[in-house]
Specification:
By secondary structure, the protein is of the alpha/beta class. The chain has nine helices and 17 strands. It has three domains: 153 residues, FAD/NAD(P)-binding domain (3-Layer(bba) Sandwich); 90 residues; 70 residues. Strands 1, 2, 8, 9, 10, 11 and 17 form a seven-stranded mixed sheet that branches. Strands 6-5-13-14-15-12-16 form a seven-stranded mixed sheet, with helices on both faces. Strands 3-7-4 form a three-stranded antiparallel sheet. It binds flavin-adenine dinucleotide. Flavin-adenine dinucleotide binds next to α1, β2, β3, β16 and α4.
Length: 378
């Protein structure tokens, strides 16, 4: 390990490893030195990323499973959709960590430090990182872990999950169809839904996601999962072979505002989680692509990946749901009743035309959205 690097990447999770991978794949930047720092050695399958996409990914070789059909369900509808040209894809955390770390270990100028980060600060000339055992500097640092963020002035809610991979003794699942969102679960004033992501006929990831202001004890999810598997899916015998737990902030907080001179915030800590959906995998890829292209052009300070029009929409959507004037279940059910998933995906990808946006805002009851529109404007 050296005392000084071109780049320190603080937090070697999805955003940190994606950024390092792309810097080292850039002919212009391949000679730069990088230190990746994380307190975790990334040996566990701690999460599963799913996302829709209509193109081949940079990480296509590690896509574990993909589906061209999805089902949306709520107490009032159950609808299957063909989503071509999109596919809904799954990448397992462990495959991503192994793939990117193996690639980076082959490259010159990449060091890993597995240690707890105590602080990351900067002056005009350099970033200064302190871990439990080391002090290292760099020309620039990219910070992907978040700490002490005050969300009290922002629209904010936690999206928290528990997922289990189940195995059944007989053929049970349709491996060609993913349950994209299933609201057939008691809502109790919150937004709660399931995903069922079959890997084959006898194995599926079943995950509950909940929007709420605080994160409950892990045991909170178990009765819901059990009831959903038994009563809604009609499965009585199964074995749990893996579990994952997590929480992400859904917020319109401006993560890029108060950055220190030599520190760029990335990933969840850089606002890459979509405020109205919680999806982050594809956005982290797009945001790190943008960042690498700015680093190549020596315009790193211009990094600000968020588009104001879509941030405004996210504010309206989140406000409408969190203020209680409508519910997540109502909004998504109306969207899937009235529109094709391709239209919804385009909107959530922030790629649609203004006409596409209008379709989204006029599909659910418009009054809650109008009220939120004026509240957000104020
Ligand atoms: C269980 C789960 C499932 C998810 N599923 C999806 C999904 O299906 N689709 C989707 O689009 N998004 C999903 N997300 C959201 C998002 O894609 C992930 O959270 C993603 O990992 C975010 O990447 P990141 O780099 O911002 O954070 P992380 O991947 O969490 O990386 C941050 C890194 O910082 C390290 N770190 C933190 N503090 C310190 C410290 N003090 N010292 C040293 N290291 C530190 C951590 O160990 C970690 O490796 C999911 C999130 C979770 C938690």
């Amino acid at each position: 390990m050296h005392k000084h690097y071109d780049y320190i990447i603080a937090g070697a999770g999805l955003a940190g490893l994606s950024l390092a991978f792309k810097i080292k794949s850039s002919p212009i930047l391949a000679g730069k030195s990088i230190l990746l720092v994380d307190r975790d050695t990334k040996q566990k399958n701690d999460r599963t990323w799913c996302f829709w996409s209509n193109e081949n990914e940079l990480f296509e070789s590690i896509v574990h499973k993909k589906w061209s059909k999805i089902t949306y369900a709520s107490p009032s509808i159950e609808k299957e959709f063909d989503i071509k040209p999109y596919a809904y894809k799954m990448i397992r955390g462990i495959d991503f960590y192994k793939h990117t770390i193996a690639y980076l270990k082959e490259k010159d100028g990449v060091d890993f430090l597995f240690d707890n980060i105590k602080s990351l600060n900067s002056d005009h000339k350099k970033a200064i990182l302190e871990t439990d055992n080391h002090k290292i500097t760099s020309n620039h640092a990219f910070k992907s872990y978040y700490e002490n963020i005050d969300f009290s002035k922002d629209i904010f809610v936690w999206q928290h999950f528990k997922g289990i991979i189940v195995q059944t003794p007989t053929d049970t699942f349709d491996p060609n169809n993913a349950h994209f969102m299933d609201f057939r679960v008691e809502q109790d004033g919150e937004t709660r839904f399931f995903y069922v992501l079959p890997i084959n006929k006898r194995e599926a990831l079943i995950e509950i996601a909940v929007f709420s202001s605080s994160i409950p004890d892990p045991s909170f999810y178990d009765p819901f999962i059990k009831k959903y598997i038994n009563d809604t899916l009609g499965i009585s015998t199964y074995e749990v072979i893996e579990e994952e737990l997590g929480a992400i902030p859904m917020t319109t907080h401006n993560f890029q505002k108060k950055t220190q001179d030599r520190i760029i915030r990335i990933g969840t800590n850089g606002g890459s989680v979509k405020a109205s959906s919680g999806y982050a995998f594809k956005r982290i890829q797009e945001d790190t692509d943008l960042l690498v292209s700015l680093i190549e052009q020596n315009k790193i300070k211009k990094y600000n990946p968020r588009n104001n029009r879509f941030l405004f929409y996210d504010k309206i959507m989140l406000d409408a749901i969190l203020s209680g004037s409508t519910t997540g279940e109502t909004v998504f059910t109306k969207l899937f009743k009235n529109l094709k998933p391709q239209t919804i995906f385009k909107f959530l990808d922030e790629k649609g035309s203004f006409f596409n946006d209008l379709k989204i805002f006029t599909a659910p009851p418009t009054w809650p959205f109008l009220k939120s529109f004026f509240r957000v404007l104020r």
